[in-house]
């Protein structure tokens, strides 16, 4: 009897992913929201917008170096793909982006299974749904923002690392690095994950010191650098020079385009005094890097968790974030259900998110289209959004550490020294 | 000094002056024509030729640092030309929108709204072309009291096809072009005063007497120009021009009669003594009765010519006995017309739309140039060409595109198009508007930015005329200018708060405490 139920459950979960995938493809085919969403600054940043990608492809095909000017900031890898292999037809692109999301959901399910060390679980469908039905993720996909590919590659590299497939994990991470420079921070927990003896298994409840295998992580780092350099050489050959570096990677550091987004950089550097700009650009970039070592040291026994928390840091603080970045962080919560009892203020976090998610498009419209609001309105909602992300981030860290103490007992409370 | 005495001094020194000035020639001319819509177009032109002089180049620049001795040639300008080794230069300062449909082609091509400066300079000097270009525009800004210093790298382009050098055509390989325009420049009397100072007779005598600022800046359209070019057979020529479109119908709506006294509120009292020639050319009406006063010294091909040197005090007037009937018919000579608009109501994107109409029975080839500051990003892949609602991308023949660089370089977009006979071609292209740093906005930020006029040239027509589309105004999103400190404080506090919380959790140990009951 029990086996039958388990079998039925397994069947239902194996069907969930294809069913959800089918829904998503139907959504992509039935609705053509691209024209409504293409200028939406919350869904696509200047670095990921499909409009800019099309422009770059057009310039490249017409013999103008797309990296000689200001608008095209996509990686030469995407440029070469879209000029040769993939035609830039809207319908096809829409399907391609959805397929990328489906691959991401599949990778997330695999990651969950690897963490549970089970070939199939009853929560598979839920994990897939958490990714495919997350509006923070499917709206950027409908807007054809290339952050969809970044998310898929992030999940693929984590999945391959969790499965112990070092080469594929590092290749995905190197491609991801070319698509988005801040993802270089993820390489640390990724290499830790590959060289750790526990793999992706949940160790949060039973922390123990990490015994480093010197030789292995150096070799892994070398491999990662080798792939990245190889892709850089390819990129240089494709674009006919090194001008792609300041245009793609450099933009993450120098912030040439101050188009509003959901992050905290754009208005800060719009209002920044000219003589302080380089200093604060340095501060904001270093601020991102500063999280890597402490998180990797503290969560050395569970590097997948360190990667998850770092994704939250990137989604909150990177130079050109989109909704998709924080959507990935939100969807990955599904992989760590053991945390849920230990979260301190999930309702507050969710309400803050709801507040920001509703007001952001509204104030954006009031400021730029309606003209009845000003920039401060939208800025205020991005601050709320950052607060919501910060609340989620700190709650994750609290819960990830608190879980080691065990279930709360009557008459005792857990505090920090 | 009383007038008699002055006349005596003149008669004593004039022959001497003329003797020493045998290599400088000054000519002045005023062209006046009545337009079909009742307005009067006048063009003043003052030409000084330095006979036999070669254009300043970087090569002869260093060897010729001797003081310049000019009598008629404006010294202030000559020094600038030599300092920056400028071979050819054109500066125009215009106000208003030239109406090609009703006024026809202007006597001087450069009628783009605001300030426009372009110069051809030789390569190979110690200082680069860009350094000299910066010096030139700052020097001219000082000379003309205009904000030409704002014609900086953000607005400078090099559209060599549209702005070909006059006599340098075989030398373009050794010379470079720099072009910039500033449509928001307002032209007024402070620019006219330095303009008059460059004339040998100032506005004291000759045709320049008529340059009365009260009337000129009251005109429907007015523009001044400074053109320095090198004519191989003659020498270096400086041409100062002033064009106006005045409206005699404004005071009395039924009569289009005009005279110097009514249009300029001045008459010519005496001629400029150093002018070799001084002519007033009036285009005579065709096929309608009219009277012109006084009698012209010469009538040639429908033009009445008055010689100011010969005549005494002069007040030319033209009178139509038959009143004025307004007609909306367009001039036959302008068979090509342009309408350029920026569509879209949001502050972050929009669409550039250009309507090109060809009234001829044969297709016309047009070169179209946009020199946008970087704040407007063109999306070339959205470029569409339509004739009567039918997509005709085959009419696009050639694209030259230099993409903008944020915060530094302007866009140069130039295409060659064919407009089919008797049809209107509609060109559209998506654009996005940039978000600027708060220090990059002009003082009156909510007014918007003036975009430079587009330039069109008919490639088959002779002579090649530049046609300017009116300037556009673009509305950019503005930050709150009053709160840089607040934003810095809010954002930094938030980051510090999250950073602090994270490190608080990461660095402090967890302990279990019994709760006292």
TrEMBL record, chain A:
Major subcellular site: endoplasmic reticulum
Alphabetically ordered keywords of this record: Endoplasmic reticulum, GPI-anchor biosynthesis, Membrane, Transmembrane, Transmembrane helix
PROSITE patterns: PROKAR_LIPOPROTEIN (PS51257)
Keyword Transmembrane helix attributed: yes
Location in the cell: Endoplasmic reticulum membrane
Keyword presence, S-adenosyl-L-methionine: no
UniProt cross-references to InterPro entries, sorted A to Z: PIG-U
Entry membrane topology: Multi-pass membrane protein
Sequence intervals crossing the membrane: 126-146, 166-194, 224-245, 279-297, 304-320, 350-367, 379-401
A GO BP annotation: attachment of GPI anchor to protein
GO cellular component: GPI-anchor transamidase complex
Pathway assigned to this chain's UniProt record: Glycolipid biosynthesis; glycosylphosphatidylinositol-anchor biosynthesis
Family: Belongs to the PIGU family.
Protein's recorded name: PIG-U-domain-containing protein
UniProtKB/TrEMBL annotation, chain B:
Stretch forming the signal peptide: 1-20
Residues that span the membrane, as ranges: 485-506
Keyword terms: Membrane, Signal, Transmembrane, Transmembrane helix
Pfam families: Gpi16 (PF04113)
UniProt keyword rRNA-binding, yes or no: no
GO annotations of cellular component type: GPI-anchor transamidase complex
GO biological process, one term: attachment of GPI anchor to protein
Protein name: GPI transamidase component GPI16
